[in-house]
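Task: complex structure prediction.
Instruction: return C-alpha coordinates for all chains below.
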Amino acid sequence: AQTVTQSQPEMSVQEAETVTLSCTYDTSESDYYLFWYKQPPSRQMILVIRQEAYKQQNATENRFSVNFQKAAKSFSLKISDSQLGDAAMYFCAYRPMNRDDKIIFGKGTRLHILP
Amino acid sequence: DTAVSQTPKYLVTQMGNDKSIKCEQNLGHDTMYWYKQDSKKFLKIMFSYNNKELIINETVPNRFSPKSPDKAHLNLHINSLELGDSAVYFCASSHTGSYNEQFFGPGTRLTVL
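Output:
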Protein backbone atom coordinates (compact mmCIF):
# COMPACT_ATOMS: atom_id res chain seq x y z
CA ALA A 1 0.00 0.00 0.00
CA GLN A 2 1.14 3.49 -0.71
CA THR A 3 2.08 5.64 2.26
CA VAL A 4 3.25 9.21 2.71
CA THR A 5 5.43 10.15 5.67
CA GLN A 6 6.15 13.62 6.98
CA SER A 7 8.63 13.20 9.79
CA GLN A 8 8.49 16.77 11.08
CA PRO A 9 5.24 17.46 12.97
CA GLU A 10 6.26 21.10 13.54
CA MET A 11 8.88 23.49 12.27
CA SER A 12 9.75 27.12 12.83
CA VAL A 13 11.59 29.55 10.62
CA GLN A 14 12.54 33.18 10.91
CA GLU A 15 10.76 35.54 8.57
CA ALA A 16 12.71 36.00 5.30
CA GLU A 17 14.70 32.82 5.88
CA THR A 18 14.49 29.56 3.95
CA VAL A 19 12.93 26.39 5.29
CA THR A 20 12.67 22.85 3.92
CA LEU A 21 9.84 20.47 4.77
CA SER A 22 10.52 16.77 4.35
CA CYS A 23 8.33 14.13 2.77
CA THR A 24 8.97 10.53 1.85
CA TYR A 25 6.59 8.09 0.26
CA ASP A 26 6.36 4.45 -0.53
CA THR A 27 4.95 3.04 -3.75
CA SER A 28 5.61 0.30 -6.26
CA GLU A 29 4.18 2.41 -9.09
CA SER A 30 6.47 4.11 -11.58
CA ASP A 31 4.08 6.82 -12.69
CA TYR A 32 2.37 9.06 -10.19
CA TYR A 33 1.97 12.64 -9.05
CA LEU A 34 3.13 14.37 -5.91
CA PHE A 35 1.63 17.47 -4.34
CA TRP A 36 2.14 19.89 -1.52
CA TYR A 37 -1.01 21.41 -0.06
CA LYS A 38 -1.18 24.27 2.41
CA GLN A 39 -3.86 24.58 5.08
CA PRO A 40 -3.81 27.97 6.85
CA PRO A 41 -5.86 28.61 10.01
CA SER A 42 -8.83 29.37 7.77
CA ARG A 43 -8.94 25.58 7.09
CA GLN A 44 -8.95 26.08 3.34
CA MET A 45 -6.82 23.50 1.50
CA ILE A 46 -4.70 25.21 -1.16
CA LEU A 47 -2.48 23.53 -3.72
CA VAL A 48 1.06 24.90 -3.45
CA ILE A 49 2.96 22.86 -6.02
CA ARG A 50 2.82 19.57 -7.90
CA GLN A 51 5.33 17.27 -9.56
CA GLU A 52 4.95 14.58 -12.19
CA ALA A 53 7.08 11.55 -11.36
CA TYR A 54 8.19 11.12 -14.96
CA LYS A 55 9.72 14.61 -15.00
CA GLN A 56 13.25 14.90 -13.70
CA GLN A 57 13.10 18.66 -13.44
CA ASN A 58 12.02 19.92 -10.05
CA ALA A 59 8.83 21.98 -10.00
CA THR A 60 8.95 25.60 -8.86
CA GLU A 61 6.25 28.14 -8.10
CA ASN A 62 7.62 31.54 -7.15
CA ARG A 63 9.14 31.14 -3.65
CA PHE A 64 8.19 27.46 -3.48
CA SER A 65 10.28 24.70 -4.99
CA VAL A 66 10.65 20.98 -4.53
CA ASN A 67 13.55 18.59 -4.39
CA PHE A 68 12.22 15.42 -6.01
CA GLN A 69 14.43 12.37 -5.63
CA LYS A 70 12.55 9.51 -7.30
CA ALA A 71 14.98 6.75 -6.42
CA ALA A 72 14.97 7.78 -2.79
CA LYS A 73 11.20 8.39 -2.88
CA SER A 74 11.71 11.79 -1.38
CA PHE A 75 9.77 14.99 -2.15
CA SER A 76 10.79 17.93 0.01
CA LEU A 77 9.37 21.44 -0.18
CA LYS A 78 11.60 24.49 0.06
CA ILE A 79 10.10 27.84 0.95
CA SER A 80 12.39 30.78 0.28
CA ASP A 81 12.06 34.24 1.80
CA SER A 82 9.47 32.99 4.31
CA GLN A 83 6.57 35.31 4.95
CA LEU A 84 4.12 35.51 7.83
CA GLY A 85 1.37 34.34 5.50
CA ASP A 86 3.23 31.07 4.97
CA ALA A 87 2.31 29.96 8.48
CA ALA A 88 0.09 26.91 8.00
CA MET A 89 -0.13 23.13 8.01
CA TYR A 90 1.60 21.69 4.98
CA PHE A 91 0.52 18.35 3.61
CA CYS A 92 2.51 16.22 1.23
CA ALA A 93 0.32 14.06 -1.00
CA TYR A 94 0.69 11.21 -3.48
CA ARG A 95 -1.66 10.25 -6.28
CA PRO A 96 -1.30 7.26 -8.59
CA MET A 97 -1.72 7.74 -12.32
CA ASN A 98 -4.87 5.80 -12.93
CA ARG A 99 -8.60 6.35 -12.96
CA ASP A 100 -8.94 5.48 -9.29
CA ASP A 101 -7.38 8.82 -8.56
CA LYS A 102 -7.25 8.71 -4.81
CA ILE A 103 -4.91 11.16 -3.09
CA ILE A 104 -2.99 9.88 -0.08
CA PHE A 105 -1.96 12.58 2.35
CA GLY A 106 0.83 12.68 4.89
CA LYS A 107 0.05 13.70 8.45
CA GLY A 108 1.20 17.25 7.90
CA THR A 109 3.87 19.62 9.17
CA ARG A 110 2.84 22.72 11.06
CA LEU A 111 5.04 25.62 9.99
CA HIS A 112 5.49 28.62 12.28
CA ILE A 113 6.95 31.86 10.94
CA LEU A 114 8.83 33.90 13.56
CA PRO A 115 8.76 37.68 13.03
CA ASP B 1 -17.39 33.58 -6.76
CA THR B 2 -17.25 30.52 -4.55
CA ALA B 3 -15.78 27.53 -6.40
CA VAL B 4 -16.60 24.71 -3.96
CA SER B 5 -19.11 25.49 -1.26
CA GLN B 6 -20.26 23.46 1.68
CA THR B 7 -23.18 23.95 4.02
CA PRO B 8 -23.23 24.17 6.91
CA LYS B 9 -19.75 25.28 7.99
CA TYR B 10 -20.42 24.21 11.57
CA LEU B 11 -22.71 21.48 12.78
CA VAL B 12 -23.27 20.56 16.41
CA THR B 13 -25.60 17.67 17.14
CA GLN B 14 -26.42 14.92 19.57
CA MET B 15 -25.37 11.30 19.31
CA GLY B 16 -27.85 9.19 17.41
CA ASN B 17 -29.11 11.99 15.19
CA ASP B 18 -29.07 11.95 11.38
CA LYS B 19 -27.49 14.89 9.57
CA SER B 20 -26.52 15.95 6.05
CA ILE B 21 -23.75 18.11 4.66
CA LYS B 22 -24.23 19.63 1.24
CA CYS B 23 -21.55 20.35 -1.34
CA GLU B 24 -21.76 22.24 -4.60
CA GLN B 25 -19.12 23.17 -7.14
CA ASN B 26 -19.47 25.66 -9.98
CA LEU B 27 -16.22 24.79 -11.74
CA GLY B 28 -17.67 22.37 -14.27
CA HIS B 29 -15.71 19.49 -12.75
CA ASP B 30 -16.85 15.93 -13.26
CA THR B 31 -15.30 14.38 -10.15
CA MET B 32 -16.19 15.15 -6.55
CA TYR B 33 -14.82 13.86 -3.25
CA TRP B 34 -15.46 13.73 0.46
CA TYR B 35 -12.56 13.77 2.91
CA LYS B 36 -12.48 13.47 6.69
CA GLN B 37 -9.89 15.36 8.75
CA ASP B 38 -9.64 14.11 12.31
CA SER B 39 -8.52 16.00 15.41
CA LYS B 40 -4.89 15.20 14.63
CA LYS B 41 -5.29 16.86 11.23
CA PHE B 42 -5.02 13.55 9.38
CA LEU B 43 -6.86 13.91 6.07
CA LYS B 44 -8.31 10.79 4.51
CA ILE B 45 -10.55 10.24 1.52
CA MET B 46 -13.96 8.74 2.10
CA PHE B 47 -15.72 8.78 -1.26
CA SER B 48 -15.23 9.85 -4.84
CA TYR B 49 -17.84 10.28 -7.56
CA ASN B 50 -17.17 10.69 -11.26
CA ASN B 51 -20.13 11.81 -13.38
CA LYS B 52 -22.45 10.77 -10.57
CA GLU B 53 -20.90 7.28 -10.44
CA LEU B 54 -19.26 6.07 -7.22
CA ILE B 55 -15.56 5.49 -7.93
CA ILE B 56 -13.89 5.35 -4.53
CA ASN B 57 -15.53 4.02 -1.40
CA GLU B 58 -13.01 3.66 1.38
CA THR B 59 -13.60 1.68 4.52
CA VAL B 60 -16.30 3.92 5.85
CA PRO B 61 -19.23 2.76 8.03
CA ASN B 62 -22.40 2.35 6.01
CA ARG B 63 -23.97 5.00 8.24
CA PHE B 64 -22.28 7.37 5.79
CA SER B 65 -24.09 7.61 2.48
CA PRO B 66 -23.04 10.00 -0.28
CA LYS B 67 -25.57 11.14 -2.83
CA SER B 68 -24.84 12.86 -6.11
CA PRO B 69 -27.99 14.23 -7.72
CA ASP B 70 -25.94 15.76 -10.52
CA LYS B 71 -22.31 16.43 -11.41
CA ALA B 72 -22.24 19.71 -9.50
CA HIS B 73 -23.45 18.31 -6.18
CA LEU B 74 -22.24 15.65 -3.78
CA ASN B 75 -24.04 15.50 -0.46
CA LEU B 76 -23.05 13.45 2.56
CA HIS B 77 -25.71 11.98 4.79
CA ILE B 78 -24.75 10.48 8.13
CA ASN B 79 -27.11 8.28 10.14
CA SER B 80 -26.97 7.51 13.85
CA LEU B 81 -24.11 9.89 14.56
CA GLU B 82 -21.42 8.74 16.98
CA LEU B 83 -18.86 10.65 19.03
CA GLY B 84 -16.09 9.41 16.76
CA ASP B 85 -17.72 11.09 13.78
CA SER B 86 -16.63 14.46 15.14
CA ALA B 87 -14.20 15.88 12.58
CA VAL B 88 -13.88 18.38 9.78
CA TYR B 89 -15.36 17.09 6.53
CA PHE B 90 -14.04 18.50 3.27
CA CYS B 91 -15.66 18.32 -0.11
CA ALA B 92 -13.44 18.67 -3.17
CA SER B 93 -13.79 18.56 -6.92
CA SER B 94 -11.59 18.21 -9.98
CA HIS B 95 -11.57 17.32 -13.63
CA THR B 96 -11.01 13.61 -14.20
CA GLY B 97 -7.34 12.68 -14.16
CA SER B 98 -4.72 12.30 -11.48
CA TYR B 99 -2.77 15.38 -12.54
CA ASN B 100 -5.64 17.72 -12.08
CA GLU B 101 -5.76 19.88 -9.01
CA GLN B 102 -8.46 19.12 -6.50
CA PHE B 103 -10.24 22.23 -5.32
CA PHE B 104 -11.39 21.99 -1.72
CA GLY B 105 -14.39 23.48 -0.02
CA PRO B 106 -14.03 25.39 3.26
CA GLY B 107 -14.84 22.33 5.36
CA THR B 108 -17.66 21.50 7.75
CA ARG B 109 -16.76 21.09 11.40
CA LEU B 110 -19.02 18.42 12.81
CA THR B 111 -19.24 18.09 16.59
CA VAL B 112 -21.18 15.19 18.05
CA LEU B 113 -22.09 15.57 21.72
